[in-house]
Amino acid sequence: MESFLNSIRNDHHQFDSGKLEDHFDSNPNDTIARWLREAIEKPANEPNAMSVSTVDSEGFPRSRIVYLKELVEDGLIFYTNYSSFKGNSIEGNNKVHVLIFWPELERQISISGFAEKVPDEMNDLYFESRPYGSKIGAWASHQSEILSSRQELEDRVNFYVDKFPLNVPRPPHWGGYLVKPTKIEFWQGRPSRLHDRIVYMKNEKNWKMTRLNP
Ligand SMILES: Cc1cc2nc3c(=O)[nH]c(=O)nc-3n(C[C@H](O)[C@H](O)[C@H](O)COP(=O)(O)O)c2cc1C
Asked: Model confidence over 194-211: pLDDT tens digits?
């Protein structure tokens, strides 16, 4: 029984990467980029999916999955509807938390930071690259608002298809948020639950790296 369990464990931990410090960058953004690349190469299921948590006006946290669309020097970008529940929450409190989990690599990244809208030119550029149906959907969906029926949504889709048969402009309520991290924790699963946890805290412009108990 013991050896059977061990073989499962060993198999489960085939991505054990040895001494973590050897694999860490002085800038954690480089590590996020590398881990994302490795998740895509693996391939992990939905490597770009991440949970974004916001806090609403009553102090309630709420999480939802979005796609990480771009990594830039300042942080992580996802696109959404600015009038959605999350958009309204960020309007009142732009402290957010992002969680990324790649089970296939036994890795988790936990990010605290501030969300800010990305510039319109960037929104336009990304919106333009999307398929026609997604662009129409961005107009038709009043994200997070009550919908009386599926028909109401489909009627709005038809309305916008008639209105924008070819070129679909970006709706003003649609765009990206840049999450600028202030604290980033990298978690790497390792045998016997002796996992690695490496935390980067930002003070002024520099990142300070510490290690936490698992
Ligand atoms: C795999 C996956 C990817 C998603 N990607 C996005 C996304 O990039 N942007 C987005 O607004 N919603 C995305 N969603 C839907 C959100 O989880 C959520 O339902 C929606 O944004 C409304 O959230 P809110 O009412 O809390 O604002 C995705 C859902 C899943 C399961």
From this structure: 899 999 999 888 999 999
Atom of ligand 1 nearest to the CA of 89: 27
CA distances from 58 to 61, 62, 91, 177, 206 (A): 9, 11, 13, 22, 34
CATH of segment(s) 2-131+171-211: 2.30.110.10
DSSP 8-state code for residue 23 = G
Neighbours of 173 (CB within 10 A): 15
Tens-place pLDDT, residues 130-144: 999 999 999 999 999
Q: Ligand 1, from 76, 80, 178: best to mutate by most atoms within 8 Å of Cβ? A: 80
DSSP secondary structure string for all residues of 157-214? HHHHHHH-SS--PPPTTEEEEEEEEEEEEEEE--GGG--EEEEEEEETTEEEEEE---
As a whole number of angstroms, the distance between CA 17 and CA 190 comes to 8
Residue for token pair 């996802």: 78
Catalytic residue numbers? 193
Supply angle C-alpha 132, 67, 112, rounded to 5.
145
Supply the pTM of this predicted model. 0.90
User: What's the gap in Å between 189 CA and the centre of ligand 1?
Assistant: 27
- pLDDT band of 26, cuts 50, 70, 90: confident
Neighbour-count burial of 20, counting CB atoms closer than 10 A to its CB (0-12 exposed, 13-18 middle, 19+ buried): middle
Candidate from 50, 66, 78, 101 with most ligand 1 atoms within 8 A of CB, to mutate: 66
